[in-house]
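The authors assume throughout that readers already know how a fold can be written as discrete tokens. Each protein is reduced to its one-letter sequence and a matching series of backbone shape codes. I therefore recommend that a typical entry be quoted early in the introduction. For illustration, here is how one protein appears when written out as sequence plus structure tokens:
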Amino acid sequence: MSGQGEVFSEFDVVYAYTRAQALADGVLIDVTKTARKAGIRFPVAVTANVWHGYIVPRDSSDLSCQSIEGRLWDTLFLFALAARGQEGDTLYYDVSYAMKGRAQKDVKLKAVCGPGDTPEPVITIMLPNED
């Protein structure tokens, strides 16, 4: 009887959705340039749900006198602070966004560090229910 690794090696991958495809499709938004300024060494992307729901709300009146750049900075800088001294590949942290009518909304975010399309580490920031 062959080992488990040999059994699985007989199957071909039917389809793989790469990080590059997700970025091209708008499922992920690359925020690496700003992340580097916040002291994050690895490439960073946020999901479309985080981007359109909190950083650049679909309804621009939800910005409540905040800039898109400031909201993105808060998201990344608070991640960088939360990640200091942490171990493991998944981190949960909170960001408070001013929403419509200036009401503050505390949002729990999940950051996952893992391999990108090549073995280099990448970080993806998402809502807790996203993968």
